[in-house]
Specification:
This protein is of the alpha+beta class. The protein has two domains: 3-79, Four Helix Bundle (Hemerythrin (Met), subunit A) (Up-down Bundle), CATH 1.20.120.910; 97-324, 4-Layer Sandwich (Phosphatase 2c, domain 1). It has helices at 3-26, 31-48, 64-69, 82-102, 151-168, 175-189, 263-266, 278-286, 293-308, and strands at 107-110, 113-120, 128-134, 140-147, 196-203, 208-214, 219-223, 226-230, 248-251, 257-261, 317-324. Strand 3 (128-134) and strand 4 (140-147) form a beta hairpin. The termini are far apart.
Length: 326
């Protein structure tokens, strides 16, 4: 186990012990508190014996995201009890409902722009993030990203990121400061192993746009017959608390479009293991001039499905198209 993660888990365990000791003074002699204390005390001993993080049934490694979320876990997903499986299913169902409630409508229209998004988890829940917000000055913010990790933990981090942006947009900060502040808040409130790649942009009614890419796959912008790639110019957000981000500025003409996507699209593979790739997506976008955003996304999904040719989906995927209109 990495030293940093082990230190983090030991700190978590120590904090739990202090809380349990406080609880024991309120309910002295409660067997449930005593049992939890015994479990907390046993975990560091298992770390010293190098048996920590191994399933007690099959002796395989317990899923890392689950272990970071709860260092007292003793069983992998394959060997949960019936009651534990039912509780996990309930958690997944609740997380899926929360996630769906946070997504913007599939299509939106604003002065000067129309937007469409597609969101598809590899499982019941996803760590991909997308949102569209309108500002008081008539501009719109669009953001799409991918939170590290999988499962419930990733979906809850996505919800946290969603709330952060929703709270910061009304402040009308310059885009680089907005992303910098979101990154700092994410860094200060999440575990060290958690971060998010994303592309965030701001589009003005005049056609001026600002885009920043924080460790994400390139955004694709079709301007006339050309495809402009907005490559990553910084680290993912939340990796360090003092990150700085640069902004790219462009002007869109009517019918120019922006395409954002997660690596669940670009890294999809066919049955032979070949990767879909960004170049193929760029060629498709180049040949889809004048398509409305929802039709552009439909064309992307048809091409991706044909490419996969039945190969299983390995990751969440999200796409967003923003089109300048008259």
């Amino acid at each position: 186990m990495a030293a940093t993660v082990e230190t983090l888990l030991r700190e978590q365990l120590q904090e739990r012990r202090q809380k349990l000791e406080s609880a024991e003074t309120v309910v002295p002699g409660d067997e449930r508190v005593r049992r939890l204390l015994r479990e907390v005390d046993a975990a560091p001993k298992r770390m010293d014996e190098e048996s920590f993080g191994l399933c007690e049934e099959c002796h395989e490694t317990i899923e890392a995201e689950r272990l970071v979320g709860d260092p007292l876990l003793r069983y992998c997903l394959d060997h949960l009890s019936a009651a534990q499986q039912h509780a996990l299913e309930d958690d997944l169902d609740l997380a899926a409902r929360v996630l769906q409630g946070l997504l913007p409508p599939p299509t939106l229209r604003f002065p000067g722009y129309e937007v469409a998004r597609h969101y598809e988890g590899a499982g019941p829940i996803s760590g991909d993030y997308c949102d569209v917000l309108d500002a008081r000055d008539g501009s719109i913010y669009f953001v799409l990203g991918d939170v590290s990790g999988k499962g419930v933990a990733a979906s809850m981090l996505m919800a946290h990121l969603h709330a952060t942006f929703r709270a910061l947009v009304p402040l009308n900060l310059p885009l680089d400061q907005l992303i910098g502040r979101a990154s700092r808040l994410f860094c200060e409130s999440a575990l060290p192993s958690h971060f998010a790649t994303l592309v965030c942009g701001r589009a003005f009614p005049t056609g001026e746009i600002e885009v920043t890419n924080a460790g994400h796959v390139p955004a694709l912008i079709r301007r006339g017959g050309d495809i402009v790639r907005i490559e990553s110019s910084g680290l993912p957000i939340g990796m360090f608390c003092d990150e700085r981000f640069s902004v790219r500025r462009l002007r869109l003409s009517p019918e120019d479009s922006i395409l954002l996507y997660t690596d669940g699209v670009s890294e999809s593979r066919d049955p032979a293991g070949e990767e879909y790739g960004i170049d193929r997506l760029a060629r498709l976008m180049s040949g889809s001039q004048s398509l409305a955003p929802e039709r552009l996304l439909a064309a992307c999904l048809r091409d991706l499905t044909a490419f996969r040719a039945g190969a299983p989906k390995a990751d969440d995927l999200a796409l967003m198209a923003v089109r300048r209109i008259d």
